[in-house]
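Might you be able to check the backbone structure tokens below? Thank you kindly.
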Amino acid sequence: MKTEQLHHRDHFKNAVYPSPFHSRQKEHNQLREWSRWSDYLSVPAYWCESMEYFSGRNACGVFDLTPMIKHRVSGPDALPYLNRLMTRDVGKIKPGRVGYSVWCNEQGRVIDDGTIFHLEEGVYRICSQEHQLDWFLTNTLGFDVKVVDETHEVCGLAVQGPTSCAILKQMGLAGIENLTPFGMASFDFEGTRLMISRTGYTGDLGYELWIDPDHAEVLWDRLFEAGENRGIRAMGSQALDLLRIEAGFILAGADFLPAQEAVRPTHTRSPFELGLGWLVHFDKGVFNGRQALLEEKQNGSRYTLVKLDIDGNKPAKDSFVYTKDKKYAGTVTSAMWSPSAKASIALASLEAPHGQVGEELLVEIYYQRELKWSRVMAPARVVKDNFWDPPRRRQTPPADF
């Protein structure tokens, strides 16, 4: 990295960093509002949260992923180390593939979730919401492995929506249409290597583009030039939040409290309590939290994370959930009015034994109109499927929209 860039990213002189894409974000940011994501400036909405949402569903939305925390794990013991750290069998993630996972403390409570990129034999990248370096280094004891935080060395863009593949082809990235979900490939781009993974946080066709910061601006420019006739738009975090709720994806700090940040351990959640039991592989050997999770599987969980279809059109943000006879059952963790599902939808954490698919519940919603607060007890149902899961998400090659 150039000397001036290192100075620009001096932690002791900068409380928050501009992204390598900042100059381009600034041009698109009509609202002139900025938020903080980890150590970086981020954009809540560029011009209209709702229209940015529709760009992600009907054309192509571009979201800056640079602030996502990125750790590189390498060395002879990289795989056994990750299998000790993660709940899933990392050995099933082959080179050139990406896998989703969670990691827990010894009590079986989720510290964070993220994606594992198997870059090459013995080299992995873990992308997560929260800083994890201290925890990752603590767990290296006894392993011949190196763990470094490379957040500032890699920048990224999420390119999501039905026209995303067509735009990347227009950029001249030959063969991108053959990339399967959770696959990744590298391309020569402007004198450097551009890594692209068919991943995303929207539940739709989409890709994530990873490149060194020196080439961030040219990547943005080439991408938007290629997408000019295919509805490409910059997309902020508010629109992305709507897209991920429709897809049923959880968010740290909203749908669960990271175990390392909890004052009260009883307020944390296990993978089973987040609907992620499929990520717990007991047959791979010892891993953090294994004994506690075995006991939970035998004795039952305290909570269940469910998807709710709620009557009416009022978003159920921060609402209590009750049984039909008005006994407390749980709380809503994420909610929205879904333009795609044409319904009020939510993710909710319910106390056992509630949460069976088809269960009828009541959601207490408060909303304000012209300074007047109103309360409604809206009927709701626990549903099985995500509210957005189009076939194009898996189709290979994708249709040329």
User: Anything to note?
Assistant: DSSP finds nine helices and 19 strands in the chain. Residues 1-8 have pLDDT under 50 and may be disordered. The radius of gyration is 21 Å. The longest strand covers residues 372-383.
